[in-house]
Design the sequence.
């Protein structure tokens, strides 16, 4: 598949899908209606000759449209925000 066939909007929606975003979250991020986000993803699915949206993401990686995130990119750090939690530094006593 030629990259010229997929629009920047379709690619942006596909990248968000690959990050695990829902159609509604994709729409909010791109500032479009959820129905429009669905159309963008469906067109990307058709262009990539995929059967499902997860298959579309896989085909995006296979074709080189998507590249795997670099190590640690896109991951949220989960730290305790409560005092006395791990690394909280409060002594019990």
Sequence:
């Amino acid at each position: 598949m030629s990259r010229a066939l997929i629009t920047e909007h379709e690619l942006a929606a596909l990248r968000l899908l690959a990050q695990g975003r829902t159609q509604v979250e994709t729409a909010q991020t791109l500032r479009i209606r959820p129905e429009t986000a669905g159309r963008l993803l469906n067109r990307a699915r058709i262009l990539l000759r995929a059967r499902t949206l997860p298959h579309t993401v896989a085909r995006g990686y296979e074709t080189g449209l998507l590249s795997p995130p670099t190590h640690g990119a896109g991951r949220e750090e989960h730290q305790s925000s409560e005092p006395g939690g791990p690394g909280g530094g409060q002594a019990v006593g």
User: Anything to note?
Assistant: The two ends are 66 Å apart (CA to CA). The domain at 3-63 is CATH 1.10.10.10 (Arc Repressor Mutant, subunit A). DSSP finds four helices and no strands in the chain. The helical segments are 8-18, 23-30, 34-47, 53-63.
